[in-house]
């Protein structure tokens, strides 16, 4: 039986606003029936702190530190906590809620999409597994996260290796379409990461940073070879094809589509009213 074809978009390194605008436009185009489902890979120029849609910027983020590290700053259309996009590959998946492969519940749809990630880690030779909270208290903690840092703890069906989180993802559903995107950590500067958030005291910061090291891990801490973006991208392209039982066809945006993305980037994601809205 012939496999379903999804689009594959490799955007390379783009501005924070462009990255979020393109994910949003892909969702809109798919909802309108203009394109099939999409797998997208991208990077960030400059390195960027992205905020969850509901995150309170002045309460949780040290804006002076963001400037000091010369980082970009953008608010995502998806929920979740802060993510430092630097030494990583970012992915997004855009697919209809009504797609036959997609279960009705958010958690189970998350599991299906994350199967592509699982297969990608396996292609890199890593023994990755799904995170499934084992106790009621752990499940309750996911509803009330204590940290503003995304990789602080694994959520339902996120990927872990030796008990530590190795990929962080977020999802939104709009106009009948699922958008799930996330960070695949290749390397990590945890000192810089923890410099970007506010804490009650320096002691609390150090305690949280030490705990973080036990909960999250970049790929290059787990492999003998030093991984670079091209190798990781190839592995996860293979992973999504295998995990979702699809074939991917490379796609390039038309000039009209590029203009739509650039216009949205300027009007929304570069707009301080959007970024500082909470």
From TrEMBL:
Domain BPL/LPL catalytic intervals: 33-248
GO MF, one annotated term: catalytic activity, acting on a protein
Pfam families attached to this UniProt entry: LplA-B_cat
GO biological process terms, semicolon-separated: protein lipoylation
Record keywords, A-Z: Ligase
InterPro entries: aa-tRNA-synth_II/BPL/LPL, BPL_LPL_catalytic, Octanoyltrans_LipM/LipL
Stated name of the protein: Lipoate-protein ligase A
